[in-house]
Every structure is written in C-alpha cells, then in structure tokens.
Amino acid sequence: MRGLILLAALLCGLPVFAAQRCDVEVPTHTADVGEVRLAYQSIGRDSDPALLLVMGLGGQLIHWPDEVVARLCEQGFRVIRFDNRDVGLSAWAGNAPEINLTYEALRYRLGLSVAAPYGLRDMAKDALGLLDALAVREVHVLGASMGGMIAQHMADLAPERVQSLTLIMTSSGAQGLPAPSSALLSLLAKREAPNRAIALEQQADLLAALGSPAVSDDRQLLLQQAQIAYDRAFNPEGVQRQLLAILAEPSRVELLNRLRVPTLVVHGTADPLLPVMHGVHVAAHIKNSELRLIPGLAHRFQEAFKEPLLAAVLPHLQAHRGDGQWARL
After folding, report:
1. Checking CA distances to 52, which of 2, 116, 131, 321 falls within 20 to 30 Å?
2. Would you say 207 and 217 are in contact if contact means Cβ atoms under 8 Å apart?
3. 294 by DSSP, 3-state: which?
4. What's the pTM value of the predicted model, to 2 decimals?
C-alpha cells in the first residue's frame, strides 16, 4: 500500500516536474560555427534525446510556438531551437553582395541560374556545426518550410547522425510543382520598409496571406506577433539572401531518393505557398516515408492546427527516439 501511495505521489508530481524541466524561458546563447554565429536555446535535459527545430525563411527561433516546444520537451526530448544565419540574433560574417532580388526572381521563373552568396547546404552545415558545438552526436531533426529543405540536406550530409526526420510544409524543389501566386511571392519578398509601423503592417499582411481560409485571423494579434519579431531583430537584407539560397537550389529529387532516414512528411491541404502536392512529392521520393495530410492547414503554425500537428508528429518521434524509453521524465 505504501508503495502505491508513493507511486501515486510521484505520478501526480510529474506534470510539475516536467514544466520546470521544460521551461521555454531559458537564456539564449550563441555559438561560433565557421563563418556564422548562431543564437540558440536548449530546453530540457542534456541527457535526453536531442530534437533540433529548423525554422523557415526569415523565421526566428521565437516563431516556434512556446507551447509546442514545451510539449515536445515534455515527451522526453531535449529541444534545441536556433536562428538560422542572417536572421534573428544570428549573424553571417561573409561579404554581403549587392542583391537585385527582382532580377534573380525573374531568372528563376525563366529557369535560369540564380546567384546566391550561400546555399541551403551551407545552412545545413551550420546546423550540424551547432550540434558539434553542443556535443550532440545524434539528433532528431524537425524542419518547417525552408527549414525542411535544410533538414533534407542535413540527413544527406550526415545520415549516421539523424535518427529521424520530420518535414513540415516543405518541398523537393522539383520543377513542375504548383507555384504560389505572384501576389504572395511579392509579399514574401517585401521586407524593406521606411519605418517600423509600415514594417509591422507588411509582416501582418504576409502572416494573413499564409494563414488558413478556415481560420479568421485577429489583425491585432498578427500585428503583436510582428512587433515581437521586429523588436527582437529586423534584417530584411538577410531574409533576401535566404530567399536567394532557395531560388538558387536545384531539384533535390536525387537527394531524396538517397535518403534512408525514418521520415515523416506533414503537409496542409490549404497551403498557399507550397501547395499540397509539394509534400506529396517529397514523401513519394523518400523510401519508406510516412505522409500525413492535415485538412485546412496552410503555411503557418496557427492555434487551430497545433493539436493536429502534434498528433501527427509525436508518435513518429517516440517511435524513433532511440533510447528505448517512452517519455522518460
């Protein structure tokens, strides 16, 4: 009986313990990785299986919703989120060239080569370098949008280190897949603004355009989200260079065909930037991958879709966690 009482006490205390262990308000640190300095946060125990979150174009580590990060940590993972080079509190030390984004975008549409100061594979090496700096040998990788493209390169560069791959709202980069509208691309490229107020309005417009038609956005909430990101860091030139890295990237179909990492592909049926066939195409070219389509999900982590996303992702992560334990708290 005393044993049962002790067990009950321990179980009742687990949520509190997990909340303390998975505090998302941890300090942001930096690590020098080659020519870049990356800002990152590590949430959870160093001894737990590592899960690296790789954000998309222009996104900062704060764009991973705190409640989602906490839930992932509470499943027994050490969650590492970071700012890619050229955004947030991270920096790229290269000589920044003059960029004519309109000209390069036109070349992309015509099927011509695009000049970029660095590529997505360089960004994948950044992420692997960060893991080296943190003494993380093996890792689960979850990438969203451009982050999913970077994650593909990580699994190709170091398949022995990537225990599982989760690719959300991303693409193979193959020719012939449905393209976003010109209006949406214009919003995506519109990063320069004469003042803070206009920059916030532009970002709110972009967030609204990337949202699901099934969800009614609160404009003030979008402006608040834009304000938090702007006040943390605002580097429109860096975002343009990231966009060039995407445009300069050839098809990754051959790369995907090589992958043998356990992979989950998650895509929304209402994605306006990378329509659903992008996700279907990725899954079709990764052997033994699993595809989960989420009705109504667009190209943002909106509140209405957080639970469906977690329901898709968590079983995959737990199935491949590698330490033989389930949510070890």
Report:
1. 116
2. yes
3. strand
4. 0.92
